[in-house]
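Weekly sync notes, structure subgroup
Attendees: PM, AL, DS (notes)

Item 1: joint prediction request from the bench team. They want all two components modeled as one assembly rather than separately. Inputs as received:
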Amino acid sequence: MSTVEVRDLVKHYDKVRAVDGVSLRSADGEYLVLLGPSGCGKTTLLRTIAGLEQPTSGQVLIGDQVVNDLPPRARKIAMVFQSYALYPHKTVLANIVFPLKAEGMDKRAREERARWAAGLLGIEHLLDRKPRQLSGGERQRVALARALVRQPRVFLLDEPLSNLDAKLRASARDELKRFQQEIGTTTIYVTHDQTEAMGLGDRIAVLESGTLRQIGRPIEVYDDPADTFVATFIGSPPMNLVPRDGRLVGFRPEHLLPLELGAEDRVTLKLDVDRIEYLSGDRHVYGTATGLGEPTRVIARLPATVLTPIEPGRTYDFSIRGEKLRYFDAATGRRTDPP
Amino acid sequence: MTGGARRTLADREGALAWLFMLPSVIYILALVAVPFALAVALAFSDVTVGDPSFDWAGWANFARNFDDPVFWRALGNTFLFTAVSMLLIVVFGKILANILVADFRGKWLIRFLVLLPWTTPVALSAVAWLWLLDSIYSPIDWVLRRIGLIEGNLNWLGEPTLEMVSVIAVHVWRLTPLAAVIVMAGLVAIPREIEEAARMDGAGFWRRMFEVTIPLTLPVIAVAALFGAILTFTDMTVVYVLTRGGATHSSEVLASWAYIRGISGGDVAQGASIALFLFPLLLAAAIAILRAVRRMEVT
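Output from the run, pasted for the record:
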């Protein structure tokens, strides 16, 4: 068993409430992503699970055992840092065997294991190099190999892709996911990048201001956001929110389509278009929506397959499928039932 | 200089650079270069306080040093003094540096106390040590007697071995804060994530220290050792104030012996030759250490 659980976890720094009462539990072998804007407490939460920070209150459980009083090394977890934190004076091999050396494994066994880990990540040819002779992607693999070599119960990854350039990031993301599926170790992954979160996570925990806003599968947090924060944080462009009678009516830009494409169950509105962006084949149409609630600026994302001509400066009839509308309380931002 | 468009002195960076550097250049020339050249000249002369006229004496002063048992004693003491002090300074400096970077309640007080020896004028602190190490009134003796480690009094500043122990102890006490601050700068420069990675990797305190912290701070430790060595090699204050070299020159070092021969004894040329004796050696050591440090930084 290697689940990770936190119960009512609170971490304060002087007056700052970095983590403010978070409870969540990962399943065994799950890829759980902690997603949130910078300063939301996701890294602090991860570091508290790692044992690098002591919680102000609450419990951390690994494999159903409370580990609050255990030092990091006794928690049988491995962490990959944002900077990778390779030992610059050690060769790649020495970096990878370091955790095994600390465990007291004998020399031959630990080299064998290091080569196994290096083989899994395709870095056998780099074992004699120093970290400064490696590219960003290679460093990331060395850091992963160092984490993997001890066969930990849990992997903790702190924005491991943020130091890679955009192109490399996509392939590294794919590799990370396949790699985790192969070894099946419970993984907790911190990121502020929703693409990474949606692509990697079995479930996503969305954090803001030290609190857990929602936890669910990518499709759930996207389609059924628990509040307006999640609705606007996830999705690019974010969910449109139109005020109406003390509520906010929310709908994703891709569900706002020209009228003639609307289905049976539909809500119509007028869109006063002022700007169009052409992005990766899609058209992002900016304009002011009237007829649904208060006039509000919204964005419609028309896929490349929609050929309806649209020009800025004109008003068009648009519609949304009724089942795609989401309702939020205007005061609290929480999800409410349809009226 | 009337029009606003004209080039003023402030625009002429070349001239400005010289202007700003001039005071320090003059300072270094007057207080380092000239005395050094003078010392070299004097070492090859027969100048004494009684007869200041300059006559070329060749290597005679150096030859006389080699025939002088006190010179050899002082040379030996200098090496002993330096080697032991340097070792202790680096070890204690590292320990103190760890304390300086640690985060705990009341750390400002500890930091203040750690830096105190370095900020106290050496003549003043040496006088305090004179009392601490007094043959009759020493509080150290009193404590040792009370806990039953010794019977009578220890002659800290009169017995040859204890003299060296005292001199080294005071010198180490004085220089350790400097080494601690230098090493601390090195410790602070280690990325926090590397230290944390080592903790996550299961390394305990000692493994982290010997496999991560010390290798990463080695260049800085080498610089601290170099400073310690040079300041020890050339130091005469502690010896002079505490023992004046000792009745039988038992704690004499080259610097104090040069002072005694050259200034107290009036044989300026002889003193200069003693003082200069170690210059080539020190220079070579400094170059070697600095080169090694640069190599370490590259890897």
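Discussion: Chain B has a mean pLDDT of 83.
Action: AL to compare against the crosslinking data before next sync.
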